[in-house]
Design goal:
Keywords: Cell wall, Membrane, Peptidoglycan-anchor, Secreted, Signal, Transmembrane, Transmembrane helix
Protein name: LPXTG-motif cell wall-anchored protein
Strand content: 35-45%
Pfam family, one: Gram_pos_anchor
Number of helices: 2
Radius of gyration: 56 Å
Order of helices and strands: HEEEEEEEEEEEEEEEEEEEEEEEHE
InterPro entries: LPXTG_anchor (IPR019931)
Helix content: under 10%
Amino acid sequence: MSLPKLSLRRPLAILGAGFIGLAATLAVAGPASAHHSEVKGQFACDVKTGEYVGHWTIDNVGTEGVDKYRFILVDAKKSVGDITSNVTIPGVSVTEKGQDPQYPRTVGKFDTEELRYPGDTTQLSLTVQAEWKNTYTEKEPKGDVVDLAGNCKAPEPEPEPTTPKPDATVNQECDGIVEVVVSNGKDATAPAKFTIVAAGDYKKTVTVAAGKSETVKVPAENAGDLKVTAEGVEKPLFDGKPAEPADCVAPGEPTGSYQSTCDDLVFEIVNPADGEKVELTLTPSKGEPQQLVVEPGKTGTVKFPASEGLTVTPSGKGLDDTKPIAWEKPADCTKGEAGGSGDELPLTGAAAGGIAATAVALLGIGIALFVVARRRKMRFTA
C-alpha cells in the first residue's frame, strides 16, 4: 500500500502570514510603548514651618535617536478642602507651537525644585502630556495625585519670658514735697507696676513701660513714712522717712511787732525779700477782724482804735500762741496828744521813721516780737 505524499505549502503559507502580522504589530506598537511620561509626587509635612514640602519627579522616555521633547499640556492644581486652584511649577511649562527651540527638553528623568504649600492643603496634582521631536504625541496625559491630611502645623512658639526691672529713688525737696522717681530698666521685657503709700492714707499706683520712668510728687503733708513697692518684688524698693535735704537755703525771717500809742494798738510785719508770704487774722474784742497779708519784700501795718479794755487776738497758719494782746495806755498821754509809752515810737507826725525801725527799738525795751520762719511755729512773745 502506498501512502500519498504530504504537502508543506499550506502550513508554510500560514506561518509566513503569522510572521508578517507580528511584524506589522510590532511596527505599530513600538513607538507607543517607547514614548511615554511618568509623573510621581513626594510631599511631607515640615513641622518646623507648618508647610508641606516636596517635589515632582517626571520621567520622559523616547525611542532611540529621539532625545528631545516638549510639553503640550501642563496642569498643576492645589486643593484646600473643596476649593481647588491652579498653581505654577517652576521649570515645568508648555512650549507653544512655533516657539524656538520647539523641543527644549531633554529626554530623561528630572526632579522639580523644592515646592512648599500651606499646611491646610489637602491635595496636590500634576498632569503633563508630551510631544517628541519625531512629532509623536502621547495619546493620553499622564499625572499623579498626592493626598494630604491638611493639618500640617508648626509647634507653638514658647512665650518669651516677661521680666520687669523696677527701681525707685526718693528725694525730699526744700518745700517738703517728696519726689519719687520709679523706673523700669532698658533690659526689661514687661511693664513694671509700682505702688506708693504715704502718710494720711495717700496711695498711688503707677505702671511704667520697659526703658521708661515716671515721677510722682507726694505732697508735703503726706511726706511722713513712705513705702514704694513693685509687683513681683518681695522687698520694698523704699520703706521709711525721706531724708530732709541738706542744701536748702532757709527763706528770710519776717519780724513783727505791736505797740500801744495814745490813739491806737498797732501791729506791723516786715517781710524780707527772700521771705515767704505771711497771712494773719487779727480779731479785736471790739469791732471787726482785720487781715494782715504781707508779701516778700513788703511791710504791713494794721491799727485798732485805742479804748479801755481793748484786746486783739492774732491767728494764722503756724501760729501756736493765740493769747490776746491788750492795749495799754501810755503814761504820758494828754488830751489831744499822741505820744509814746516811753519807747519813742509814734506812728505819725515828725517821727515818721517807719514802724519797721520802731520795731527794732521796741525789741530793745522788751516789747513783743514774733518771728515767722520756714516750717516753724509762729509765736507772739512778751
